[in-house]
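Title: [Solved] Metallopeptidase TldD-related protein 3D structure

Original question kept below for reference.
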Amino acid sequence: MLEPAAARDKAISLVELAQKKGADAADAAYVGERSQGVSVRLGALEDVHRSEGEEIGLRVFIGQRNATIASSDLSNDAMATIVDRALAMAREAPEDRFAGLAPEEQLFRGEPANLDLNDGGDPDPGELKQRAQRAEDAARGVQGVTNSNGSSASASASIFAIATSHGFSGSTRATGYSNSASVVAGEGSSMQRDYAWHSARHLKDLESPDELGARAATRAVARLNPVSIKPGKLPVLFDPRVATTLLGHFIAAISGSAIARQASFLVDALETQLFAPGVTVRDDPFRERGLRSRAFDGEGLPVKPMDLVKDGVLTTWLAESASARQLGIQPTGHAVRGVSGAPMAGPSNLHMAAGPRSREEMIAGIGEGILVTELIGQGVNGVTGDYSRGAAGFLISNGEIGPAVAEITIASNLKQMFATLEPASDLRFRRGVDAPTLLIPEMTVASA
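Solution (posted by the thread starter after getting help):
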């Protein structure tokens, strides 16, 4: 794996070679990663792995034709070969009047912000094994836990670099750590399983394995002895770990490519009241140690914190250069890419801001409802917004969380859900996408 400066230089040299051989324009992306992990189950070591690899991708343009090719061989001979192949592919590709590099006048200039994404660590397998074992031991020590699906711990380091033929080059370095545990509670046909997981850029920010394991066990035990429910229209609370999925549907619906294809239920929603007044959805690429923080986007454009939804109003699409040209707008600095294929639009650190009411206050005001802690299946139509998914969680009765419920379905339409949802005050920044508990005042709930 190359150092950041060397990775940037490699991308620059590949672009220069492509221009020398006949490309009208080109860009290149380098990704290098070192990762290792350990998994244990029932106190015994199950797996140890370590890998290190690197790839470089080249995109070339000949007029309005383009092609992309990638290689894990970074030798000079391999670089010459992929340039020749990319150019040959581009000459045979169909014309695409929207494809091209980002606008040169908008490229990021200057020094990138220090986002503190790298702690320089490289723990040995023994440290990772100890972390995984502690998480599993903590989980198995909770009364009611009868088995384990295992626990794991991992560490990684990565380098990303891009270069374009019209003057941009940049590179970043980041580390990452994660820990997970999954256990089973109960016996026979009444068994239930659940898990806990956490990831961080710095090892010292990672949740204690004892707390993580205990949380996984408590969740599993709480799901024992689920009760049946009567079908009907009920208020539904989305626990933070599933509330983020609603933001995922929102982002897919406002991506420039979906809007340009007229394949989104939000195609006419720009600058309209999509959520209730007071609701904010914010994208923040500059969060220190954020899992998706970045100093520039995948096309070399500057990035900035942005309210995608402000006081409930949808303010923007997410557009990389190609979809921006289709829509007749400027790119928004949200391009993401790997070494293969063209850049696509995607968020950085995304969250829905906390609301004024606590989760407990919301629950206290519900006579009968559902707290959803797990979603199952993919029953979401991105064109119509129709929403129907399998779920599990807990019954809410008379303002208190009651017994577990399982094998239920919840259904509505995302536009209606967005318009009526209320965020609670329990927002925590733990993932790349974060949300507090979300209350949907009415959904159709039934047994699966």
